[in-house]
Amino acid sequence: MARPSPRSTDAAVAAALLVALPASLVGQRIDEFMAAARRGTAVYQDRGAAIAAGYRPMGPESPAMGRHWVHPGLLLQGAVDPARPQILSYATIGGQPVLVGVAYAVPAGVELPDGPAPREAWHVHDGPVVEEAVQPDHDAHSAARAGPGAGGVAVLHAWIYVANPAGPFASDNWALPFVRLGLAPPAGAPQAAARALALASGGAPFYVEQLATTTELTAAAARRIESILTAAANTVTGWLASRPDQPLDPAEIEWLARLWTEAWSEARAAARR
Q1: Which residues partner with 106 through β-bridges?
Q2: I need a surface site. Which of 71, 193, 241, 258 has the fewest CB within 10 A?
Q3: How far apart are CA 93 and CA 41, in angstroms?
Q4: Is 45 exposed, middle or buried (0-12, 13-18, 19+ CB in 10 A)?
Q5: What backbone phi and psi angles, to 5 degrees, belong to 207?
Q6: Cα dihedral sign, 21-24-27-32
Q7: What pTM was estimated for this model as a whole?
Q8: Residue-wise pLDDT tens digits, 117-157
Q9: Edge-to-edge strand ranges of the sheet holding 123-125
Q10: Residue 250 and residue 270: Cα distance in Å, rounded?
Q11: Calpha distance 8→13 (Å, rounded)
């Protein structure tokens, strides 16, 4: 099955996305800004160039965010420059790391850039990166409501290479599980279907860790949960191998959503035992 690169969707993405601008750039045309943002980050499609520039991996690869690569120097500067994001997000697509988005970070509690991204799109990270990455509500703390002196950093995700069905600034991009598997994300697909597909691209351990953030798991419970999710992953993998190479139809989307809902319910029940 062909594995399309996010780069093949540049024209559609450029027409649909906005990224946070510094106040001085608010008046620029969006297409001009997008061109500048892409010029500034295109080199990092080669992850070796990101390493040479000072970006370092932090935390696990998330099904809906990829893996964050952080530039400590830019993080300390706390400036919002579209061409110099503090964070690069890579997702494993076709066995290779692909740059799918970026994020900007400033100290929490400072004045946020004045548009065009709504200030509510910024959220606060105030814990260890590894723990924050697996939180089920990792973007629940709005930076727009953070008062002066708030700890941590305010973060704004920007999906400049893979369009996000939830919006260009939403933290989780549930198109990624489809893209990882070479599938076109159907419009309006429920998040549960995307989560089922994430299992087929190695997401089971991530979800075990996610449950562990809200429930103190025994070793036996963790093994049981991993077994449940691995079985679901194997079901999805087998189905993918046998289906024709064509867009997903509504019945398949419904089946995937039901598969996830049932597996996750069973996993959560195992976590409580």
Answers
A1: 154
A2: 241
A3: 18
A4: middle
A5: -70, -30
A6: negative
A7: 0.82
A8: 678 888 888 765 555 555 555 555 555 555 455 568 889 89
A9: 56-62, 66-70, 87-93, 96-107, 153-158, 123-125
A10: 30
A11: 10
